[in-house]
Amino acid sequence: MKTLIQGGTLITESGMGLADILVEGEQIAAVGEHLSSEGAEVLDAAGKLIFPGFIDAHTHMGLPVCNTVTADDFDTGTKAAILGGTTCIVDFATQEKGETLAEGLSHWHEKADGNSHCDYAFHMAIGDWNPSVKAELSDTIDHGITSFKVYLTYGNQVNDRELYEILDALKPLGGIVGVHCENSGIIDACAAKVKANGITSPAGHPLSRPDEAEGEAIHRLLTVARLVDVPVIVVHLSSEKGLEEIRRGRASGQRVYAETCPQYLLLDESKYSLPGFEGAKYICSPPLRKPADNQALWQALEQGEIDTVSTDHCSFTMEQKRAGEEDFSKIPGGMPGVEERVALMLTYAHLPLPQLVGLMSTRPAKLYGMYPRKGTIQPGSDADLVIWNPNVQRTLTARDLHTAAGYTPFEGVPVAGVAETVFLRGQKVVEDCKLRAALAGQYIPRERNSLK
Ligand code: URP
Ligand code: ZN
Ligand code: ZN
After folding, report:
1. Closest ligand to residue 336's CA
2. Ligand 3 centroid to 273 CA: how many Å?
3. What residue ranges line ligand 1, CB within 6 angstroms?
4. Per the CB 3.0–4.6 Å rule, which of 232, 253, 271, 392 could disulfide with 418?
5. pTM assigned to the model
6. What's the 62 CA to ligand 3 centre distance in angstroms?
7. pLDDT per residue over 113-157, tens digit each?
8. What is the CATH number of domain 54-367?
């Protein structure tokens, strides 16, 4: 099966220009001017932008949290992803207490295999560090899971010794760790104080998780990483305080990768003071910050200090969020965003398109060991292609989106452009903005980090 995509404007991290793309089977066979259409189905892409499939390297599908499970499983969550132009997610396979890594991983394969509309890979979240888990790391990497996550807060956090040991154990194996950076002691104390002062509504959430808690945790992570002498990833960076710590680490010669998300760029903590229980929609950790933090992160993005923009898609319905109606700390944390990310960033980031491709496709592909299979448009790469119509003006609304959360944090936000056609490994899975081929996603084993 051959497809020739003619006359579109190709955008890769290294530049943009008019070119044809010949797709043969699952891969890109050729990129260039005036390619022969012999034997190929021809798709006219004049006036359209053609991006390499976008990668969302931070999602939680089917994740059990707070006695419930995220509203989106792999079916609904990846349908939302592919319709938004994301052709590959990296989800967090999670080891629960008492489980082996292999057991945690096999649960994630059960959730994802055969149920995914886009390609998927896994990070491994370590929830129970012990010597036998250490012995499993090498096999986990052999299975194509080269990145790991640890939390410095929540019930399953690692302590400083465990953090050191995990980084140290992964160093000779070439595995990399992404870290949720918030100081849990500060959060526990602040939450107790806020509640003692009679604040139980969502307005208490940002008060209980100050930006200092993120700054301190990043500082501590970087101290440990410096001692072990390994690069690390700060995931979902939310604050200027955290950014300053990353700058300090880099200035001292450390390799630190930083990820942020659209909600930390576009939304602020005023959402938590919306009337009634509306603020619960925006409960996520770290919390939304102040407009000054939004500005600092935009600037960091423009200056090339942020490596990737992911979503931390972790969706709950309002009914699920109501578990915390009497106590903000019991509201399941997280929000949807996997379908909105690309349109939001293409509309609101004042960045050249190649740089945006870097942040949402090429750099995550490199950091998470999928490049050049994913993350670019070149012969031999998977034909994951997003044909974007930039001339459609629309308004984001839950009615049009596919998350099972039933709401979008970006309700009423105008965006420019839409993923009109999406190819996943050569198969046209989205046409006229509709899913035409279901459940075509495959597991993608990964190599080690190649992002310098
Ligand atoms: O509140 C959030 N972000 N929930 C998802 C889990 C995490 O911390 O990444
Ligand atoms: Zn996190
Ligand atoms: Zn997350």
Report:
1. 1
2. 23
3. 60, 180, 284-285, 312, 314, 333-334
4. 392
5. 0.99
6. 12
7. 999 999 999 999 999 999 999 999 999 999 999 999 999 999 889
8. 3.20.20.140
